[in-house]
């Protein structure tokens, strides 16, 4: 299973990363981030937001992994949305800036390094783009959120926050209530929703109706694991 497909599972977002409760925290800054992509760092405003902390930055051949922690609740979460949207605008305006098929991950973590949401792009190694009819590029093309494990403001609906991300991947260890999908209005540019719930005792059509109450124009898919691979089954 490749790295990105592993992130698609709901289990991934329930993993508690190494705790840093003891000792001081040292965030990255514009001087020590060690990025080869200085123009990108500047233009997405990575260090120009009051409530954004860059916890970790890893750059390797074919990969960028950025961990962001925000302060001050919805104010910080809004700034995170601004960075995600600025990244997509940057890629649109600079289509040849990043190498072909680079994997770019922007991970939204809380103070204990619990993953609240995971943003990424599709690459040729991923199985979903062909099924969705999506061309791989360097934009943030999907977000993965575990409704049952999210600990921040990510599930609190607000009219002030909008993410320009086309695919939303939902995981949960139970079947969410209709009201728990209200935060999806923040992803009003979404074109496809993919869900995968551990509790399989639910009506798939009812899940689709609950989602479409907030995003009426999206396509909805269930992620189905056949014992070897995950594939998509269109619901609505």
User: What's the pLDDT, averaged over the residues?
Assistant: 89
Q: Give the termini separation.
A: 28 Å
Q: What is the count of DSSP helices, taking H or I runs of 4+ residues? A: 5
Beta-strand residue fraction: 25-35%
User: Which of globular, elongated, flat, extended, rod-shaped describes the shape?
Assistant: globular
Low-confidence blocks of residues = 1-23
Total DSSP E strands: 9
Helix content: 10-25%
The helix-and-strand class reads: alpha/beta
The side-by-side strand order for the widest beta sheet comes to 1-2-3-4-5-6-7-8-9
What would you say about this model in short?
By secondary structure, the protein is of the alpha/beta class. Helices cover 20% and strands 25% of the residues.
Structure commentary:
The protein has helices at residues 3-8, 38-43, 73-93, 128-132, 204-212, and strands at residues 52-60, 63-70, 103-109, 115-120, 142-146, 167-172, 192-197, 219-225, 230-234. With 236 residues, it is α/β, with parallel strands linked by helices. A nine-stranded mixed β-sheet has the order 1-2-3-4-5-6-7-8-9. Strand 2 (63-70), helix 3 and strand 3 form a beta-alpha-beta unit.
Task: Output the keywords.
20% helix, disordered N terminus, nine-stranded mixed sheet, 9 strands, 236 residues, 5 helices, alpha/beta
SSE order and pairing:
Layout (H helix, E strand, L loop, with lengths): L2 H6 L29 H6 L8 E9 L2 E8 L2 H21 L9 E7 L5 E6 L7 H5 L9 E5 L20 E6 L19 E6 L6 H9 L6 E7 L4 E5 L2
Parallel strand pairs: 2-3, 5-6, 6-7, 7-8
Antiparallel strand pairs: 1-2, 3-4, 4-5, 8-9
